[in-house]
Design brief:
The protein is of the alpha+beta class. It has 2 domains: 7-159, 2,3-Dihydroxybiphenyl 1,2-Dioxygenase, domain 1 (Roll); 166-287, 2,3-Dihydroxybiphenyl 1,2-Dioxygenase, domain 1, CATH 3.10.180. The radius of gyration is 18 Å and the shape is globular. 19% of the residues lie in helices and 34% in strands. The chain has helices at 18-27, 69-78, 92-101, 179-187, 218-224, 248-257, and strands spanning 7-14, 36-37, 44-50, 55-61, 81-88, 110-117, 123-132, 142-148, 166-175, 195-198, 201-204, 212-216, 240-245, 263-264, 270-273, 282-287.
C-alpha cells in the first residue's frame, strides 16, 4: 500500500503561558489567529501562525485532563519548547491502515475541534482527527498524524500575511550524536524518504512543499547559533525551527523595530532569535 504521510502539516510549540507566548510571536512579526479552545477532553487552547501550505501553533494547557498529563509533565520538566511534528495525511483511518501494513504502529484515531471567530463576526468550527505514532516508531520528540476535516477554517486568507514576510515552515533541526541513524528513523515515517548528506549532518526530505528535517551533531548545532549568547539551541527535543521568509531584510527590520535581539548563522545567510524570545525553541529565518 502507498505510504500515506506526504509531509509536515504543522509544528507544535508547547508553552506555559499562552498569552505571553502570543505577544512574543507578535513582536517577531507574525500574524496570529484568534485564540482557539479545544474540545473539553483536550484541556488545551492555541494560537496558530498560518502559511499557504503549513503552519505552527502555540499550545497551552488550560485545564488538567488525562489527555494532557504528558504535556503538563513536559512543561514542569523543561518549560516552553517545541514538542511535536504533526504529519500531513488524508483520511486518518486510511492512513493508519496503510502504516500498519508498512509495519508502523499508531494509536487509535481521536476527534476534536475548536471554534474560530471569523472576520464577519460569526464563528466557524475547525475539526480534526489525529493519531499518534507509537513511541518506538519516533526517534525524537512526539509525532502524530493530523487529518483536517475543515481546512477552510484553518487556512484562513486573513491569517497568511505576516509583517516579517514569513511564508512557510522551512526546516526542523535536531541535535543528535548519531545523525545517520536518526535521519533513517525519520525517513521511514514519510512517503518522500530521501536522505541527503550535509557537511554537518543529514537532511531528510518529507514531501512537496514541506519542511525538511536536518539531523546534526550537537557541536555543529552549537556552532550554528553561537553568534547569539544564550540562544538555547540544545534545549528540549528539537534544536530549532526554521521559517522560510520572502525577504530576510524585512524579517530583520521587524526584529529591530521591536527590540528583539538576533544573531546570524555562519556566512550570514539566515538570522535567528533565542529560545527565550520564541516559545522555548530557537527560531531561524531563512530566505526562500
Amino acid at each position: 500500500m502507498t505510504h500515506p504521510v506526504t509531509g509536515i502539516d504543522h509544528i507544535v510549540l508547547l508553552v506555559g503561558d499562552l498569552e505571553v507566548a502570543a505577544r512574543r510571536f507578535e513582536r517577531l512579526g507574525f500574524t496570529l489567529s484568534p485564540r482557539g479552545t479545544h474540545s473539553p477532553h483536550m484541556g488545551s487552547a492555541n494560537y496558530t501562525i498560518i502559511f499557504p501550505n503549513d503552519y505552527f501553533e502555540l499550545l497551552g494547557v488550560i485545564a488538567e485532563t488525562p489527555r494532557n498529563a504528558g504535556k503538563r509533565e513536559i512543561l514542569a520538566a523543561r518549560g516552553d519548547s517545541m514538542t511535536a511534528i504533526a504529519c500531513r495525511i488524508g483520511d486518518v483511518h486510511v492512513a493508519r491502515e496503510a502504516l500498519s501494513e508498512l509495519g508502523i504502529a499508531t494509536s487509535e484515531a481521536m476527534d476534536f475541534s475548536r471554534p474560530l471567530p471569523l472576520p464577519d463576526g460569526s464563528t466557524g468550527m475547525a475539526a480534526f482527527s489525529v493519531s499518534t505514532f507509537a513511541p518506538q516508531e519516533v526517534p525524537n520528540g512526539e509525532m502524530f498524524m493530523c487529518g483536517h476535516k475543515t481546512r477552510d477554517m484553518v487556512w484562513r486568507p486573513e491569517l497568511m500575511t505576516h509583517a516579517n514576510s514569513a511564508r512557510a515552515l522551512a526546516g526542523v533541526i535536531v541535535a543528535t550524536e548519531t545523525p545517520d541513524e536518526m535521519a533513517k528513523a525519520y525517513a521511514r515515517l514519510f512517503a518522500d524518504s530521501r536522505i541527503e548528506t550535509l557537511p554537518d549532518g543529514m537532511r531528510v526530505a518529507t514531501g512537496a512543499h514541506s519542511a525538511v528535517i536536518e539531523c546534526m551533531k550537537p557541536d555543529a548545532v552549537s556552532a550554528r547559533y553561537a553568534s547569539l549568547e544564550g540562544a538555547g539551541a540544545l534545549r528540549g527535543s528539537f534544536a530549532a525551527l526554521q521559517i522560510g521568509v520572502a525577504d530576510l531584510a524585512k524579517a530583520r527590520l521587524c526584529l529591530e523595530s521591536t527590540g528583539v535581539r538576533y544573531g546570524s548563522t555562519p556566512g550570514g545567510k539566515s538570522i535567528f532569535v533565542s529560545a527565550a524570545d520564541a516559545g522555548g525553541t530557537v527560531l531561524e529565518f531563512v530566505e526562500q
